[in-house]
Amino acid sequence: MDQQTLSLLVVGATFALYIGIAIWARAGSTSEFYVAGRGINPIANGMATAADWMSAASFISMAGLIAFLGFTGGAYLMGWTGGYVLMALLLAPYLRKFGKFTVPEFIGDRFYSKAARIIAVISLIVMSVTYVIGQMRGVGIAFSNILEVPLATGLIAGMAVVFIYAVLGGMKGITYTQIAQYVIMIFAYTVPAIFIAITLTGNPIPQLGLGSTLQGSDTYLLDALDKTMVDLGFHAYTAVGGMSLMNMFLLTLALMIGTAGLPHVIIRFFTVPRVRDARKSAGWALVFIGILYTTAPAVGAMAIWNLVNTVHPGEIGTEEGHLAHADKPAWMERWEQTGLLAFEDKNEDGVIQYYNDANEEFAAMAEEEYGWEGSEIVTLDRDIMVLANPEIAGLPSWVIALVAAGGIAAALSTAAGLLLAISSAISHDLLKGVFMPKISEKNELMAGRIAMAVAILFAGYLGLNPPGFAAEVVALAFGLAAASLFPTLMMGIFMKKMNKEGAIAGMLVGLGTTLLYIFTYKGWFFFSGTAMLPDNPDGWLLGVNPTGFGAIGAAFNFITAYIVMKFTAEPPKDIQDLVESVRVPRSEA
Amino acid sequence: MSQEDLSRQAYWRAHLRLLGICLAIWFLVSFVLGILVAQPLNAFQLGGYPLGFWFAQQGSIYTFIILIFVYAWRMNVLDRKFNVHEE
Asked: Is B75's CB within 8 Å of A211's CB?
């Protein structure tokens, strides 16, 4: 059986599994549709949360991102895991105690204001839609690059499957599907990592392998990698550098509070039976996330090591130190066809040089010394680091099939979670909460299903015709979550006297400053050519990178809310009692 | 102020103290050890890992996991002590 048939069979089998679960776990009530009837075991919810959270970006792109960043890649690792500490300690248990269906619902009730609820709905929809575009593109990438199926066909197949289980099962169907998707995803991620760790270091556990010596040598892998990178003009892999410490600090903080404020993850904690389950479940979620997130640094470092050593098998500058263009392994030629990898023999010496030609001093030296005229890997997409890993390591074809299924599982599970957050905001917050308070439960459930179907079609359309700014919007989604929802939710729980006026002003200022700062450097609504200042460290206000601005937007939110609160009336007594009641697990309301 | 209100206040204060300790550890392992002092820490090795690099890419994540479980456990103790635990 050839690779493509095998891969399609494996992906087809996983799709059949998801549909089977959908038929078994249909939702019969709004409670089942929105919060899976609050009957999910905390460990199972932890696993579903991990799948919900770990997106196509975590699965496909993160290891490559770390591979090219080195030490600074830690900002993403700490940011996307540290947010769970904030969520478990500062938000999830109290919102579970509140016991309603959506995040905007808490904001609307706590701040006794429909306006606050609507602002929350708008920021939820903007961040979830921008995020879901990336997932749809992830499905497309997995199909077109690994399975060699046209992007549109793959995308439509993926949409059809999500449609069946999300529309039928709501949160209940999504939860059980996500558990299956987690298992597929983690298996697909760790198997190639284990093989590569064994090949390079002899240690089967990637987390330990990264700290081990190279097979048949006394040199630590990371020391050898540091030296190789420096020899090629890059900065040492494990050394601090590449981003100012202030920006690494702000980016980590923005990702943490952004993660904690993402509504599609928060609502997962509404599905467990009790407050104490919500606390424990967040711990389990981080265990399941941590398995992938502690493996990713090993995958990244080992992939870049493999790549550099394939291109430079010996002493750099000598004849045996360079791979000839004619001798490229089959996987390089295959990935060249996808356009994610490209070579150019700039100095026409017939061999490949890969080095940091942006480092002027090193490039000048290399030209003088070796006659190099620029790095000859002209395109190197970071996604290759994970997607081509099994081929680079020479793993059997079923592993390649598994990676395709894993990438698709990661994208679909996150897409489904986001789509549920969007549809519940529309049917529960806008329709029932604002426009049609008297709607019956049966009709609300139907409205939820219709909203879900429309959201899937819309997301699929955007996945097929991605707006040019798709790569930039993740920063926007995290920035908005950090600057609008997280501070408002936290103040709603921890500041009993925080009132409607303060919360609304805080959200608007947090949102406004964050949008303004991002648009100033990335272009208004991401239209190129409309940026008002250059997007580089010289142009940034006080050197602050727009991707880390969410942390500052959050600070503006807190400060504004506090000042406005001081000059306006206290919240009514029943609201203060509500705050008292969400602070304790058991209370007679 | 009733007896129950006083007990609620004491519960909330004990809770805030626990939160403070947990968040201090959260901040220490990530922002301090993994970013601000990572460069000097890199002079020390943990196996083949430079220590600052290890905190940024491995150690902080392990600490976060332990931290959430310890918090959940201490909160259960606190809930029982102040008799606000669930069935």
From this structure: no
A89 — contact with chain B (CB < 8 Å)? yes
Is residue B87 one of the residues assigned to a domain?
no
Q: Where are the alpha helices (DSSP H) in A384-432?
A: 384-387, 389-392, 397-424
Residue A75: give its domain's CATH number.
1.20.1730.10
Is the predicted pLDDT of residue A524 greater than 70, yes or no? no
Element of type H or E holding A33 = helix A30-35
- Chain A positions touching B50 (Cβ under 8 A) are 222, 238
Minimal CA separation from A286 to chain B, in Å: 6
Query: For A366-405, how does the pLDDT look when each residue is reduced to its tens digit (9 = 90+)?
Result: 888 888 888 888 888 888 888 888 887 778 888 888 888 8
In a domain, residue B86? The reply is no
- Chain B, nearest residue to A75 by Cα: B56
Residue of B nearest to A221 (CA): B48
Number of domains in chain A: 1
pTM: 0.92
The H helix count followed by the E strand count for chain A is: 26, 2
pLDDT in tens, A56-91: 888 888 898 899 899 999 999 999 999 999 999 999
R_g (Cα) of chain B, nearest Å: 18
Domain boundaries, position A237: 9-305+391-582
ipTM of the complex: 0.96
Number of domains in chain B: 1
pLDDT, tens only, A139-196 = 777 777 777 777 788 888 888 888 888 888 888 888 999 999 999 999 999 999 999 9
Mutation pick from A45, A81, A87, A89 vs chain B, by most beta carbons of B within 10 Å, is A89
Q: With contact defined as beta carbons under 8 Å apart, do B62 and A294 qualify?
A: yes
> Per DSSP, what are the bridge partners of residue B49?
B46
Nearest to B64 among A75, A279, A286 (CB): A286
